[in-house]
Design a protein that fits this description.
The complex is a heterodimer of chains A (152) and B (72). Chain A is α+β, with helices and mostly antiparallel strands and 152 residues long. Chain A contains 3 helices and 11 strands. Chain B has a 3-stranded antiparallel β-sheet, with no helix packed on it. Classes of the chains: A alpha+beta (152), B alpha+beta (72). At the A-B interface, strand 6, helix 2 and strand 7 of A face helix 1 and helix 2 of B.
């Protein structure tokens, strides 16, 4: 199917990539259906995008936090995770939303409210972690720089 | 908004399965105990609002910044 995207123009995606947030995401509760997009460039960006299929202008950058915060191990409510299907670890993907201001060195990611996708049921949820020790605004730029330097 | 007066250790019931009990009262703070089904999420409102704002800020990223991200 063809979808319009905010940052990548028209994209052809397979229907099996659609994911559904029964309750929407915080601040955009009315939009339920999304697709996760990766930019197709060769070097592979560190970011992916949560693109709404219902509102083209709704697209949030995300990361896989395990790449940048290897110690990130949030406590999440089993009952909430069960709302998107049987909680089998290998079926679940975890992402965190990234806010990038004009000065990209000040970019942050929200480790307090990760997005969890059940790849088997195609259902997803954004939830607030139980241990409120994780920061809504965790600096990400330094982590990316550090990782790039190791890679180079 | 419904306003109810409750004393220490008194409870209000919301629906069939949510209970809120006043556990403690000090000068300008009350301590509430909340009993609800596990699939009901309960959070301080200010955190909830902050996360809403954070998602909105994330979606307001500018096009020229998106280009910078692609190279990062």
């Amino acid at each position: 199917m063809k979808i319009q995207t905010k940052h990548f123009g028209e994209r052809e995606i397979d229907k099996s990539r659609l994911i559904f947030f029964e309750d929407g995401i915080f601040g955009f509760e009315e939009y339920k259906e999304y697709v996760i997009l990766y930019d197709g460039e060769e070097n592979g960006s560190s970011f992916c995008w949560l693109q709404s299929t219902e509102e083209v202008n709704l697209a949030l950058p995300m990361i896989d936090p395990s790449l940048f915060f290897p110690d990130y191990d949030p406590e999440v409510s089993g009952a909430l995770i069960s709302r998107i299907g049987e909680p089998i670890e290998e079926d679940l993907s975890l992402f965190t939303v990234v806010v990038v201001p004009d000065d990209i060195t000040k970019m942050t990611t929200n480790l307090m409210a990760p997005i969890i996708v059940n790849n088997k049921t195609k259902k997803a949820i954004q939830l607030i972690v139980e241990d409120e020790t994780y920061d809504i605004k965790t600096n990400l730029y330094e982590q990316i720089k550090a990782l790039k330097e190791v890679g180079e | 908004m419904l306003a109810l007066s409750r004393k220490l250790q008194e409870t209000i019931v919301i629906g069939d399965n949510i209970e809120i009990t006043v556990l403690g009262i000090s000068k300008d703070q009350v301590k509430l105990g909340i009993s609800a089904p596990k699939n009901v999420s309960i959070h301080r409102k200010e955190i909830y609002l902050q996360i809403q704002e954070e998602n909105k800020a994330a979606s307001n990223i500018k096009d020229n910044i998106v280009d910078q991200l692609k190279r990062l």
